[in-house]
Design a protein that fits this description.
alpha/beta, 7 strands, about 10% strand
């Protein structure tokens, strides 16, 4: 019986890549390490002859690449996302080294598709994009020259994945984590509800939602737990609406905001 490939459920996601050569070089890096699933979020130039040239034989990776219009589209169905970052301050999620993080990524892949998320060549990932991930990874580099080409970063991560896979022993997942889109639905519902009940009047909405994302990322919510939380939010919204209606009826001369 063939042994399952632990790398088969891993996506490499490149966000807003500027230079097509970097896409091709990333595809080559992936193929040398046995990764096959490339997702591209709004690449500036793709398909492109430079991408094909830099792929140097990894044309099949480029041909099968999925071009997406948003990060949510690229992460659809994903149960765990690792975001690459060069920043160590003001990050809303835990940050690990590649060697620390890749065994966890392989384990998470037992429950469903997982993603390695890479940002643009010049500025990396935005704060919003980082907020979509459950874990950050920083590649230790020379502090005096820590700039790493995106394709080189893909190569480092792909190598660390293969190295981790050599000694990987799969365990039966303890939970069935909710997918990316289910989590995003919860976050949108939560933010809307907090606005409606007036919670943000004394809070910074963006900062608070960043912290709430981090909180729920640590808990690894399942579908049924999301249903419970969203049910609670719905009841809170309905109760708040009833209070507003009753107040308006009892104080018809007071203008509601």
């Amino acid at each position: 019986m063939n042994k399952p490939n632990p790398l088969s459920g891993i996506r490499v996601v490149l966000s807003h890549t500027t230079h097509p050569g970097n896409i091709g070089a990333a595809a080559r890096a992936m193929k040398t390490m046995g990764l096959r699933h490339l997702y591209l979020i709004n690449p500036r130039h793709f398909p492109d002859a430079q991408a094909t040239a830099m792929a140097a034989g990894a044309d099949d990776i480029l041909q099968d690449a999925v071009v997406c219009g948003s990060i949510d589209e690229a992460l659809q169905g994903v149960v765990f996302t690792v975001a690459m970052t060069a920043r160590l301050r003001d990050i809303s999620i835990a940050v690990r080294t590649p060697r620390e993080a890749m065994p966890q990524l392989l384990q998470e892949a037992q429950a469903g598709p997982v993603a390695l998320l890479f940002g643009t060549e010049m500025s990396g990932l935005t704060n919003e994009e980082m907020g979509k991930a459950q874990l950050g990874v920083n590649i230790p580099a020379n502090p005096e020259f820590s700039s790493l080409n995106v394709a080189a970063a893909v190569q480092v991560m792909a190598y660390e994945l293969v190295a981790a896979a050599e000694s990987f022993v799969p365990r039966v997942p303890q939970i069935e984590p909710a997918t990316h889109e289910r989590l995003e639905g919860l976050y949108a519902h939560l933010e809307k509800t907090l606005f409606e009940i007036g919670f943000f009047t004394t809070q910074n909405p963006a900062r608070l939602m960043q912290r709430l994302r981090r909180l729920y990322s640590r808990t690894r919510l399942e579908d049924e737990e999301i249903n419970i939380l969203r049910g609670m939010l719905t009841v809170a919204t309905e109760y708040n609406a009833r209070l507003k209606k009753r107040y308006a009826e009892e104080h018809p001369d007071v203008q509601q905001h």
